[in-house]
From TrEMBL:
InterPro entries: CheY-like_superfamily (IPR011006), Sig_transdc_resp-reg_C-effctor (IPR016032), Sig_transdc_resp-reg_receiver (IPR001789), Tscrpt_reg_LuxR_C (IPR000792), WalR-like (IPR039420). It comes from Massilia eurypsychrophila. PANTHER family: TRANSCRIPTIONAL REGULATORY PROTEIN DESR (PTHR43214:SF42), TWO-COMPONENT RESPONSE REGULATOR (PTHR43214). SMART domains: HTH_LUXR, REC. The keyword Phosphoprotein applies. Keywords: DNA-binding, Phosphoprotein. This is DNA-binding response regulator. GO terms for molecular function: DNA binding. One of its GO terms (biological process) is regulation of DNA-templated transcription.
Amino acid sequence: MTMIRIVIAEDQALVLGALAALLGLDDEIEVVGRAVNGQQALALCRSASPDIVLTDIEMPLMTGLELAAALKEEGCACKVVIVTTFARAGYLRRAMQAGVRGYLLKDAPADSLAAAIRTVHAGGRAIAPELAIEGWGGEQDPLSERERQVLRLAGEGKSGADIAKAIHLSEGTVRNYLSEAISKLNAGNRVEAFRLARDAGWL
């Protein structure tokens, strides 16, 4: 019997443990690594060569969507399945663009997770039914990747100087990116722009 080798990326320890325990009960699935952020998960995917990485979206250092995009860019054979609480069309759209093969919600029945993993491992897609219908509706994401990055850091409460230092840009360039993002979202300030973009699933 060929085992399906899984890496799990989840920043909440209880959820990480529960997912690992649940999948560990399946005779055809082997959990070969656990990560608490996207950067750890990327390193594990490089070293452990899993068949599938099961990841949350919102994690420290690197989000699940950024992880998927990085794996796609590297040409990694590992397939990505996202398990999240966020039923947002913007997230699903970005996930598909990043090559994600599965997108499930955390309140889905437990047996649907293993079934989705098998589907993806066999070359198929597994999208939560409630998202498959609505996933391509809604507004298109107007933000560039850099605007998204700057806005996310601003939403964490970082100053322009802190953001500039974190992503190696000048403060003036950071201000320009923030200004563009605020304008595109028709927001009054960076806080409102962050909220609008987050609620739409664009961050």
